[in-house]
Amino acid sequence: MNEEKSCIIKHFSHYCSLTKEEKTLLLSLEESPSNIKSGTILWEMGDAANEFCTLKSGWAFSYRHLENGDRQILEVFLPGDIIGLREFAFSERLENVRMIDDGVVCHFPHKRMLDIFRQSLPLTSVMFAIGSRQQALMTERLVTLARRSARQKMAHFLYEMYLRLRQTNPDISNQFRLPLSQEQLADVLGLSPVHVSRTFTALSESELVFRDRHHLTIPDLAALCAEGQFDDCYLTDNVRPLLGDTA
After folding, report:
1. A GO BP term, please (predicted)?
2. Of 18, 34, 164, 225, which is the most exposed, with the fewest CB atoms less than 10 Å away?
C-alpha cells in the first residue's frame, strides 16, 4: 500500500514524525481490508471485545440505546481513526458501532497492538495520546449536551468536524461532506430531528452554515467558531515535545 494514501499514517503523523519502520508497522494495521456497507453494525454491546479496527475510509459512530427506545450517539469516527480503544481492558463491548456510509474497515486483534507496543515507543505514545483525545472528545460532548444552546451545539459540532477532517486532509476547504442524517445529528446533539432542521435554518439565515444534503459550506470559519464558543485546546494534542520531536 502507498503510505501517502494511508489515513492511519496521516493520523499518527499529526502527533509526531514517523520513521520508515514505524510507517510499515502502521500499514500492517490496514492489511486485509473489508468493504463495509452503510448501516452495517461492526459490533454490538456485549459482544466479545478481542479486536480493534482501523477505519480506512468512510464514517462510523458508536452509540447506546436507552430503555425508552431513544439512541445516544457517543462518538463519530472518521477515516484514520482506531475504533475500540476504550475497550482494550474489557472482555465485552461497551457500546454498539455502526457504519454511517460505505467504507473500508481493517480488523486486527488486541495482540497486534501489544506487538506494536513492544516494537515502538513513539507509536505506543501516540496510542496513549489517541486514547486521551477520545476521552477529551467524550468530555466535550458531555458539556455540549448539558450546557450549550441548540445553535451552540450545532456550531461547535460542525467546527469540530472541520478541524478533525483537516488533521488528515490539511488542504480541506470551507466546503466538506458531512454524511450524517438529520436523525443522526439529533442523536449526537441531544435534539429532535425537527430542532436540528430549525437550527440549520437559523444558522443559514445568519450566513454561518449552508447545507445542501450532505455537503456543507462554512462562509466564515472564524464566525462559526465564535458562535459555538469553540476552544480547540482538546484537539491540539501531540507528543512531539515528549519525544524530542521538533518537526
Report:
1. regulation of DNA-templated transcription
2. 34
